[in-house]
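When time allows, look over one protein, given below as sequence and tokens. The question is which stretches look regular and which look disordered:
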Amino acid sequence: MKKNESKKSKKKNPVEKVERKKTNWKLVGELMHGYRHYIIFATISVLLSTAFSYAVPYVTSFTLDYVIQGISTSTPKFLLPLVESLGGRDYFVHSLFLCGIALFFFTAMNCLFTFTRRQNIAYASEGMATASTAIWKMCHMTTTSTQAREILCSVVHPMWTPSAGLCTCN
């Protein structure tokens, strides 16, 4: 009986919900000021990198199935008229190096856009981190001169002034 009583007393307390802080989108937008173009270029690079990475297996499939084996069922329908206008399967059988060039091109473009994505995200992250650190330091200054804080805050960004409400100085 004692074992059952001890098990009952060891029941777990219900998990309390942790209150999440709301995101200040106005502040996020202001922190991104001057770095938005990096985010936009990174987004475009993600889309292009993904498109080129999906194109690589299609080139391999086209080469193996259509050019070498002659099976046209796995080749996309929109590509068949273009291939036929270039000379059809016979042209690609005699010019197999074109499939290798296409494979190299799509792989190189995938690598290029993966690099530019990482580079632009790094630039934007570093810039926003530097700006937010500078804002934090300026907003927590011990100086008593409101005018000095106002000037220092506006050096980083003209919108980040204590009077604008984005920099809450003590």
